[in-house]
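Appendix B. One record, verbatim.
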Amino acid sequence: MQHETSESAPPGSRPGRVIIADDHELARLGLRTMLEPEPDLEVVGEAATGREAVELSRRLEPDLVLMDIRMPDVDGLVATRAIKEELPRVSILIVTLSEDPDYLLEALRVGAAGYVLKDASRREVVAAVRQVLSGESPLDPKLAAQLIRRLAHQTPPKDQPAKHGDELTQRELDVLRLVAEGKTNAEIAQSLFVSVGTVKVHVERIINKLGVSDRTQAAVRGVELGYLTPPFQART
């Protein structure tokens, strides 16, 4: 089963384009009902299996996928990895029943920006989607820092950061370190004595240089490339 909507608004004025992937029709309807009233969000398609989610993402190239973690044929983690390998700029929020840290760590490892619980309120779901689309993290700051730190400890250290396109500047490395610590843009701005707007520009540049979709994956990529090592001291 695949379902997609009509064309979205013109670029520049268009809302965030979202695909809902869940094998339960009522769950998809519930998420659609939560998101459709929001003028800045548009549900552009639905998928009932992991394979359909990959195919639909390939065709529609949404801004974000709400991905059920347990689905037939291909589960949410496998589908997430497949989408991120082909479409690294697409953000993915895992929809899950539990906050098992091991499962969430694996979700980050395969490319997810974060997660929402299946019993989350409409306000919580909309907020999580908006946070990712606006460049913030939907994860609790302490949990985000804990997960990224665990990932860093499990990643073999590099003598030198890997080359990846344009090199990060020292200020971008400082911002990336604070992102890895779970800091919000406002908190980073306060720490570095700059404006929130300046931080947003730095975060956008980091995301573009690292070829990722969101700040959570920027931190993950920073660890993988050797830019960050525990306790997240940026490497120059």
